[in-house]
Amino acid sequence: MLFGMERFFDVFDRQATYLGEIPTDAQMSFVLPLTAEEVKLLRLRFNRDGTYKDSLKSIGKDYGVTSGCISGRIEKALRKLRQPSSGEDLKSFIQEEEIPLGGMGVLTESERKKHLLDAKVQSFTERLSKLRSILVRAEKRSYDFHRDLINTTQEYNDLAAELLSIRTCIARLDERNKELVRDDSYIYLHDISVDKYKFRTTLANGLRGDNIRSVAELVCRTEKQILELPNIGIRYLREIQDALKQDGLCLGMKIEDKK
After folding, report:
1. How many domains does the chain have?
2. Residues 59-82: tens digit of each pLDDT
């Protein structure tokens, strides 16, 4: 393995252990004298056993530069790792001694470890807070949905009951209207005398004896009432029925009194 890469992967493994996940290029540059881009180039170029992973040409194609340019950047990163000061920094990191932390003074590994853990806790806390906010909004939407559903169901039931009541009223009005039409349409029969039918004398006298003088008064009688009249039998009943049938009338009709 190239000099420097062994320690590079040692640091990589230690970071993965501390973080509990594969470290990013930025996290690696945090403890190495390399930029995040240089860390990425080394990870693309080399395997853990020191063999080449990706060719310079393919890496250069991804960056939009020539293979020679990529080769120069990798060599520069390797020179940084081979510098004695870099070796001391890496050694101190591995041996849990003090390591330089840019802009934060000099921290021991335990302090650095605590700092990283605190950062993770803060990150998880922020994510948890966002998830709680999402959950609250979801619960509110769910509550509003169920409330609207209940209100809609109640409103539907109320409308259905009201519609049934309206239909019942309409049916009653229709029935009443039919009766009124039927009654009103025959009011004129009060003005027509039963003499128009020229019943036989016995039948005509029997009707006058019961004060049946208009056609309206005649059709309002039932067959039973006609048969109860003096001297009126089945033969005279048939005569009445035949006469009324010619005018589309019959016994037992309901006709309103003339006002």
Report:
1. 3
2. 888 888 898 888 898 888 888 877
